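REQUEST ID: PR-0412
SUBMITTED BY: lab tech R.K.
PRIORITY: routine
TASK: structure prediction, single protein chain
INPUT:
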Amino acid sequence: MAVTTQIEPRQVPSLGALINRHYSLVVSTISVLVFLALWQISADQGWINARYTSTPSAVARAALVIFRTDNFFYHAWVSLSEFGIGFALALVVSVPLGLVLGTSRSIRLFVEPPLMAMYTAPRLALLPILIVWLGIGMASKVAIVFLGAIFPIIVNTIAGVRDADPRLIQAARAFGATRLDIFTKILIPGCLPAILMGIRLGIGRGLLSVIVGEMFVSEAGIGYQIMTYGQGMQIDKLLVYAFVVSIFGYSLTLAVKLMEDHIRSWRPAS
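STATUS: complete
OUTPUT:
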């Protein structure tokens, strides 16, 4: 007796289902396309001066020229190295320091006034001093990235530790948990979203710091190229490098945000 099996036909998701699944991506893509179209039309119709604003088509042509002839990847590597080293140092220092300040009231009261003063001070105003100390090479840009990124991470880490659920801490103590257990199993997991929020803020400040630092004191890098093309009024090429920085920063912050959303998804509701 033969046995026949019926294979269920594979259901193809409808267009509406695909749009709902990727709603944020669809809306973001449409907004970018609308912006570019309005920009191009405004320049073509003379509503804005294309000499000072360029056009998407001119920027696209300039991008092809830059990628072929402008030693683009060398300048991108210089900026990426300065940002990566400075931001990595900021992470290594800020997260442990923020955890210590968040858990120790005495140390926090002692360190918080100068920390808040440095947090609110314009870091770029320290650039001339850093140049005197470290020169115009990579070290001064690494230092300015470090100063730009470290404070948002410290402040958010402190806030995350102090906002830990006191009921969990009390319950852990009632079951005989040590301070190390509370620190590693309650405080650190509980403040991870706050740390990631600080990292997102630090990425923006770090990128701004490295670009501005290169604009003023550098012989290579994306910021140096932006300053060079700005002085020559080559707006289309300037915008190519500006868009590269924006895309890189957006990609990094989006990756951190996805990690933050994933962590929030498995945290139990209080």
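NOTES: The chain has a mean pLDDT of 78.
REVIEWED BY: pending
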